[in-house]
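so my prof wants the structure for this chain in the tokens format not the other one, which i didnt know existed until like an hour ago. anyway here's the sequence
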Amino acid sequence: MADQNNDGDGESKRILERVNSQMGASASRGGDDPNDWPEYWGKRIGRALGFAFLLVVIYWLYQLITGTG
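here's what i got, hopefully its the right format
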């Protein structure tokens, strides 16, 4: 039984190492390029719009629950 557990651990480590090597820089923050202005501003605009959308949904839910809307 202990041998099967060790084999599973080894296989899990191999799979994780392979996935990490295939993902490369796209999975890490090291791939961010501060000189790439469309990516820089696109992220900021997207985050701002996402936050604004969250506030609208919270307000809408508040009106729905209180019955004022």
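also thought this was worth mentioning. Residues 37-69 form one domain.
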